[in-house]
Amino acid sequence: MSPAPLVRFEHVDVALEGVPILHDIHWHLNRGEHWGIVGANGSGKSTLLGLIGGTLWPVPGSGQRSYDFGAGTETDAVHARSEIVLVSHELQDRYARLNWNFTALDVVLSGVYRTDVPRRRPATEQRSRALAVLRRLGVAHLGERRFLELSRGEQRRVLIARGVAFGPTVLLLDEPASGLDAASRLELSAMLQVVAAECTLVCTAHVADDLPPLIARYLSIERGRVVAAESRSADAPRALAREPTRHASQIQGVAAPLTTAPDQALIALDHADVWLGARHVLRDVSWRLEPAQHWLVTGPNGSGKSTFLRMLHGQLRPALGSEVHWPALGDPRNVWELRKQIAWLSPELQAAYRYPSTVRACVASGFESSIGQTRGLTSEESARVDELLVDLELTELAERTLRTLSYGQARRALIARALVNRPRVLLLDEPWEGLDAPMAELLNRTLANVIAARTQLVCTSHLAAHRDHFTHELGLEVGRVTRCVQLARL
Hints:
Elements: E1 7-16, E2 19-29, E3 35-38, H1 45-53, E4 64-67, H2 80-83, E5 84-87, H3 89-97, H4 104-113, H5 124-136, H6 152-165, E6 170-173, H7 182-196, E7 200-205, E8 217-222, E9 225-231, E10 250-255, E11 267-276, E12 279-289, E13 295-298, H8 305-312, E14 323-325, H9 335-339, E15 342-345, H10 347-352, H11 359-364, H12 379-391, H13 407-419, E16 425-429, H14 437-452, E17 456-460, E18 472-477, E19 480-487
Parallel strand pairs: 3-7, 3-8, 5-6, 6-7, 13-17, 13-18, 15-16, 16-17
Antiparallel strand pairs: 1-2, 1-4, 8-9, 10-19, 11-12, 11-14, 18-19
């Protein structure tokens, strides 16, 4: 007889805070069968991972969930929680939200301890085990680096190493390639080939082409229902390994013209250096955002793109001897006044926004740049919130709490929050991360409307797509400007 499935669902439903999310799930996972789960934002992918991992429970009476890890069938999730580990956007964001700035080695050691954070000085055997995991998965060079000073891609790989250090039977990965550039996707693919020999993988993605190449079978899920269980052919596209293509309209090597007077620039950097702890992140960056310009900031994971945006937003100040100014914005000294004119959205903000808020209240909180709505709204402000709920297709979600939304749905709510004040400058850090194709197109339409309303964009992205909004490109590598070009407008 073949071994019993590790995980089995028989006609299971799941609800979050009374909202039905999954319906009639019937599926099983066998040891060594690596599965994908594919679906749009809000389809229920992350909820299904929570159901597999035992952190979410079926609706009572809806069906049965069972596990078998070799000691017989179990219908509770107590033992399963020690056999199944989840690596998700929310886990990554938790480190930022709680300021857990441990070294990468300590993060992996917390996997060895099976705790949230490292709680004691490691024994020699424990330290050796954690180092062995780092080496085996190709991230030993990150061991002494601080987690919050790593790029998103580096953080993701360290958290996968932490998951492997648990010694799980099943490793769940929620959109592991999301937000990674081409080089980081190749590194992730190589890492997962090693991991797949040690445990059973279940990975989510928006489309099958974005699943790791080793995934042979996948579920398609729509509106909380499994609509198909499919196999990938041996020659299926391997998105993790593909290189981005250059946009045809890019003019190579043309310096971005700085034609206006210095006091007309919205933002001006002069020889800016930024340090995060002992790490020199940005080096000698001089740059101007002039009227009618829209900048795309590119570079590999870890090049300093996110730090660049945080400096423009006033969160970080450059080192002594370098300067950042906002001349055409009145050079406000009060950061709250500055944020009424410059809005910022990033994965870190999404991590920090854990206030128990409805979508409507989240959007309204943008008026004060607060986490959670802090005051009542005027009739004009309420109308603005309603307008953005329609524009971002959030009306049906308006009274849902952020906790019940998918990562991509929550991203749309925060985009609306960023726009509520009609900012002069909109800073977006990898805004397409976590969005499926229809929602990415919705974002593009929104950005076109934002530009038409005379808001200027500064946006980081590693993607070859979504470039038509921009007039200029700034390239960063290892914290230095390597490209400053004007883009042809079609």
